[in-house]
Each structure stands twice: as C-alpha cells, then as structure tokens.
Amino acid sequence: MPAPDLALALQAMFDRVPHAIVVVDVQRRIAAVNPGFTRMFGYETDEVIGRDPSFFYADPADYQGVGALSFRQALDQRGAIFEIRYRRKDGTLFWAESAGVGVYDGAGQPVGVIGLHVDVTTRHEAEVRLQHSRAELAELVIQRTAELAHANELLARRANLADEANRAKSAFLANMSHEIRTPMNAIIGLTHLLSHELSDPQQHDRLSKIDGAAKHLLQVINDILDLSKIEAGKMTLREADFSLEEVMTGAVQMVSSAAQQKGLELVLDADHLPQHVIGDATRLSQALINLLANAVKFTESGWVRLRGTVTADDGRRLEVRFEVTDTGPGIDASRLALLFVPFEQADTSLARRHGGTGLGLALTRHLARLMGGDAGADSVVHQGSTFWIRVNLTRAEHAPEHAGQVSLAGLRALIVDDLPEALAAEAQRLVLFGMDVKTASSGEAALELVRNEYAAGRTFDVVLVDWKMPGLDGIATLDAVRRLVGARMPQTILFTAFSDPGLRDLASAVGCREVLDKPISTSALFETLLRLLRRSATKALPPAADDQGSSRQTLSRRHSGQRVLLVEDNPINREVATELLRRAQLDVETADDGVRAVELASARAYDLILMDVQMPGIDGLEATRRIRRTLDPAVAIIAMTANAFDDDRAACIEAGMNDHVAKPVDPDRLYQTLLAWLPVRAPAARQAMQSSGGQSFEHRLATLPSIDTERALWRVGGDVGTLERVLRCFAVYYQRGDVELARAIETKDPAALRKAAHALAGACGTVGAVSLEKLARDIMDGRPAELDPRMLFDQASKLNAAVTELAGQVAGALGISARPAP
C-alpha cells in the first residue's frame, strides 16, 4: 500500500486532472471515474459504476474490437494507445486519444485497468481538412499550370495595354495639373498683393498662413505628378544650403492651426542639430509635414513633438533622424508593417472619420529612401506612436555660429511648464545658450522655488511660463510672482499653444511684455531673450504704463473699482492721497490711526493697504504686524514714509510690508507701485457685477462673507453668468458634503483622503472659498498629521462639515431648493 501522503497525492491527481479517467476491473466493469470523465462524457458517477464501457463507444464494433484488444494488452503489461470516436450522454460524438494501463496486486496478479481519455476532436478535424486540402491543392496545381500557359500567351498583349495606360495616366495628370495650378496661381498672387496692403499684425499673420498652405498644396500637386517618377526610379533631388531649424519650424507651423483647434500642444526640439546643411529642403519638409499632419489628425488630446538628432557624423556627411511622437491611440503591431503601403491605413474606421488616402506615409518612405535613409514607426496601443525618418545630409561649409552662449551666458532663468516633454526641450535650449536654468512643473511649484531663491538672496533674470496649466495658469503664476517679489520682478515671457485674442492684454496686465506661440523656434526664443535682457541684465522694473496711456490711465483701466485702505494720520496728506487714488478710479477708505486700521482690515476685504509708518499710538509697523496675524498674505501692504534709509525699509519688510513709497509722494511713482502690487482682475469684472441684473447677484453674494467674490470672478475670467452657474453647481453637488472625502474618513484611508482633499481644494478655490481651500490644501499636504495622525481625519471631518454648511448658504443666497445630489 502507498504511504498516506502518497495516497493523498494520487487521490488529488485523480480528482484534478482535466482529462477523463476510467478504472475498470478484470471483468471489464467500471469501478471508478474522475470529475474529468463526468465533464467529458456528461454522465454522473452513479450512472456508470458497475456498467461495462460499451455504452460510450460511438460504434459497438469498436468496443468489441479495438477496446477489447487494448484491455487485454493492458492486463498483459503492454501499453496500448489508440484514437477512437466516443458518444456523450447527450448523443454528441467526439474523438479522443485513449491509453490503458494495467493495475496489479501485491502478488503481481491483475486487478483492473486504468483508462485515460484526451479530447482530440479539434486536431482530428484539422487533419481531415488537411488531407482534403492536399487533394484540392494537387488539383489546383494542375489547373494553375494550364492557366499559366495561357497567361504567357497574353503577356505581350498586356504589356502593350500597360504602355497605353501609362500614356493615358500621364495625359490625365498633366491636364489635372493645369486645371489646379490655374486657380492656385490666383490664390498665391492675390495673397502676395494683399500682404503689402494690410497693416494689422493678426490679419497679416493669417494671410501668411494662407500663403503657406497654398504653397504646400502646390507642392503636394507636384508630388502627385512625380509619383510615377519615384516608382520608376527617375526622381532627382535638388540639393542646396538650408536651415534645418527653419524647415522644422515651417513644418510645425503648417499643422499649428489644426493642433490648436483640438487643444494639442506642439513641441519642437531642434537644438541638437547643426544650423545649416546641404540637401533637398523641399522633399524633407514634405516628409515632415506628412508625419506631423498624421499625428495631429489622429491625436485627440495631449501633445505632438517633432525632434531631430544626429545619429552619425563623419565631419562632412550627416545622418539625421527626425521623430514625430504623439499621445494618440497607438497602433497594433500587426498593422505597423502595412502603414507605408499605398492606400493603407492603421485603422479604417479612423480613416473614414478623419479622411485621407493612405498615400502620405508611402510617399514619405519613398522620399526618405531617396535621401539615403528610411522611414518607420514604433507604437504601443493606448500609449501613442513615434513615426521616424532617417536621411543623409551634408554639413554646410560656412554655417553661421550661434551667439547665444556668449550673450546669455551665466544669466539665471526659471521655466514653468506642466508638460514634461516641452519643459525638457525648453530647458535644454537655455542651457545651450549658457544660462543657469531652474524648472518647475506647476505654478505652485514655481512660487515655492521663487520664494526659496529670493529668501536666499538669489534672483532670476527671466521667468518663462506656459499659459495653460492645471491649478495656477501662466497669468495667475506671473501675477503671484509679481506680488511676491514686487520691484524685484524679473523679465517674463509667456508661452502659449492656444491662440487667444485677449491673452496679450492679460499678459500685459501682469507686467509680461512678451508672448510667444508654441512651438517656439530656437532663434525666436533667443532673439526674444536678447531683447528683454538688454533692458535689464539682472532686474526688471514694476509694470510701467503701456502704450495706451499714462500710469494713472493704465491703473484705472486694469484696476478700476478695486478697494484700497489708506492709513494716514495727517489730514492734508490723507486728502492728497485720497484724491490721487480716486482719480485712478479706485475705491478708497481711510483710517487716521493704527488702531482704526486694524479694525477696518479685520472687518472688511481690501485689495491693498497703504500704511503710514509714523503715527501716534500704534504706528504703521505695529499695525502691520497685527493685521498680518489674520489677513490673507496675498494682500499687499505698502508703506508710505518720509524715511528713505535702508534700515527703515528693512524694518518695513520685517514687519510684513511688501514695498514702500517715499514721501512726498510722487503720483507717477505711487501709480507704478500700485500697478506692481494690486491683484489682477479679469477685464471688466467689477463693471459686469454692477451691470443690469448683476447688482442683485452681487448683493446676494455679499451675504456670504466666506466667499471672496473678486477672486471667484477672476477664476472664471470675469464672467458673472459663469460664476453664478459655478456657485449653483457647488451648492447642489456639495449640499450633503463631499462623498469621496466622507468615504475616505470612514475607511481611514490617508491616500484617498489626500486625493479627495486635492479635488475639493480646487472646487473651493474656484468659488472663492479661501479659508476652506487652505484647510483642504493643509489636509492634502498632510500637515495636521505632523502632530498627530488622528488630526488628519479630525480636520477632514471639520472641512466636510464646513463645505456642507457653505453649500447650504450658497443655495439660500441663490434661491436653490434642495435636490438629490448628482
């Protein structure tokens, strides 16, 4: 007898093996079956025990013949394997491969046979089909041999027909070329004439794009006409000296409009290439445009990057690889090989949606091979694609050297961009210029970096910020930096991948003089930096009056209606300063001593405080310290003092002031300082609040002291209707609190809690609930947990209760009845 453990193992194997096992005794009666048998034959165990196996043979003769022979061989200790057809309980037939093994007692006498049956129906049917196919193939060979003989007889005739067809095709293409070139000539000619008559920069830019598109279409026509030459090996390249950066920039600009319409960001990385080379710029441009257009066409969100690198260089000859990478849907590996075949698409359903013939990639590969290289693609489904071409070029003998390393060397730059690919490309360019570069991936991270750098006594010469970023966008980031550093504000550049007519006005309002459209060429970035940094090598002045008027007019236009608290004990000085502020359309309230200043600042919201320093009782320094204990640190406090010594200025800063204006007050200097520190509001925000129907809305919001209306308006671009809709949504969604926050509190999940707090901080910030936003961000950063982990969930419970309360208050103010949360 086997050992107990072995017996258990054998029993487990008997029960778990997926195939059918049948145990029969020497009388050929079924003694046992495993679960695999019941699954394969459809009989339960109690239906088969004690019976002979004849009932599950499809042919009774097989039971008496092959089955009996196999049983005897197994009893005689001879293995037996055979393939036979069986019948299931439901009558269906199947093929199985069967094997029998004899079982013996301790004396060596046979006691039965174990039969193993494996379903091989699929294999058996395949073999039958294969036999049939072989027979059909033999017959087909005979048939095709006869057809081939007939085809050889027709070959000469078909060659003549092909020559005639080629001549007809050439005539058709020539006629088509004439018919298309005639209107194209008018388009290009009239565009050229109009370009000399327009002075508006935006219209001139649009006309330039029309001209570029027309010339590109003309080039496509030429490519179609040359397709037969390419296939015949008769295409020749026209080599000349050209700028690689200009070709790449031009190719990206050709798809920029389509990318902007879809919200895609274009990234250009040409910093690792020589400035000038010799080759066929037209053919290279055509290939790059084909790849970029495909990437933009099939990418719904994210970015598209064009990158060029030198992969081989012997001093004269260059092998250059161009890659177009996207964040599109990706392509299955089985389709990649077909992409460069004419009239093939990666996905025919997408092709129908986006249009296209599948000819572009085939032409691209032809062009790349003409230039001594090749083309290909790499892709992962749901992770995007990279299409590449490799070409051979010649280094130009007298390529101009870049002067950036000399002129900009050593200057410090901060780049802020939430897209890692764009951030890396932009940073590399500045490093090549010789600059000392810091990077940040968000507006919040940039502020923290600026705060730390300035606290350590280091400044930036230039800050370059992307416009569209989650959280603080580029405008908000520049405004926050401006309020943080004041007169030490560096020069600034705003990047944008999305054209917006009002963007330059918004940028100007925060003191940013330069806005560059993405993708940005190296030369454009270099020239802009030179132009900016020539104005000031290390320091930028506060935002000055722009070309549209004086400092007072600029202040009035940007900040009309904003609330200023003027603290001045001298009645004459108070009267003069009040009049200067009111002339700039500012809303002025006054306090004649420090005590009254603290009372007013604690009870009301101000956009800025002008604080006299020398006052009886509580002076301006002590008043500032008390105000800073409760006031939002984003509100600037500006000292007005007759003391202009460095020690006095340092005392003002130490007390919590942001800047100072010397007495006697120079009006222009006062206006310049206010421009530097007043928070930027969306254009016409306050006027919109007081427009028809807006007064009642403002009055209702005034009943909600926990809502900063001005900040909420700024968040929604100054649109009162949008703010009302946002507040209504907030009231309905959070009337029972934050569901995700509550769930995280209940499950005591810190990660889920921080995630929920992150989302809630954004919602509170959008509606101007400043204190709740701060509490949510503290929870998101885990600050209460620094003292006691339990405090994290206690604070979260308080936050959820406060959000529920605020939602109820907003609902009451806006007249919203309770309804189920979405």
Write structural notes for this entry:
With 822 residues, this protein is α/β, with parallel strands linked by helices. It is 52% helix and 17% strand. The protein is built from 32 helices and 22 strands. The strands form 4 sheets. Strands 6, 7, 8, 9, 10, 11 and 12 form a 7-stranded mixed beta sheet that branches. Strands 2-1-5-4-3 form a 5-stranded antiparallel beta sheet, sandwiched between helices. Helix 30 packs antiparallel against helix 31. The radius of gyration is 40 Å and the shape is flat. The model is unreliable at 348-357, 399-406, 536-549 and 682-695 (pLDDT under 50).
Content-based structural category:
alpha/beta
Q: Please report which band the strand proportion falls in: under 5%, 5-15%, 15-25%, 25-35%, 35-45% or over 45%.
A: 15-25%
Average of per-residue pLDDT values: 78
- Our measurement of the CA-to-CA distance between the termini, rounded to an integer number of angstroms, reads 70 Å
Low-confidence stretches: 348-357, 399-406, 536-549, 682-695
Largest sheet: 7 strands, mixed
Rg from Cα: 40 Å
Number of helices: 32
Q: How many beta-strand elements?
A: 22
Tertiary shape: flat
| Percent range of helical residues | 40-55%
Give keywords.
5-stranded antiparallel beta sheet; alpha/beta; 7-stranded mixed beta sheet; 822 residues; single chain; 17% strand
Give a quick rundown of the structure.
Helices cover 52% and strands 17% of the residues.
Topology:
Blueprint: H1 4-16, E1 20-25, E2 30-33, H2 35-41, H3 45-48, H4 60-75, E3 80-87, E4 93-104, E5 110-119, H5 121-195, H6 201-232, E6 240-243, H7 244-254, H8 256-261, E7 265-269, E8 276-279, H9 281-298, E9 303-313, E10 317-326, H10 333-336, H11 348-354, H12 360-370, E11 374-380, E12 384-395, H13 404-407, E13 412-416, H14 420-432, E14 436-440, H15 443-455, E15 462-466, H16 474-485, E16 491-496, H17 503-509, E17 514-517, H18 522-535, H19 551-559, E18 563-567, H20 571-583, E19 587-591, H21 594-603, E20 608-612, H22 620-628, E21 636-641, H23 646-655, E22 659-662, H24 667-677, H25 685-689, H26 694-701, H27 709-715, H28 720-733, H29 739-747, H30 750-766, H31 770-780, H32 789-814
Parallel strand pairs: 7-9, 13-14, 13-15, 15-16, 16-17, 18-19, 18-20, 20-21, 21-22
Antiparallel strand pairs: 1-2, 1-5, 3-4, 4-5, 6-8, 8-12, 9-10, 10-12, 11-12
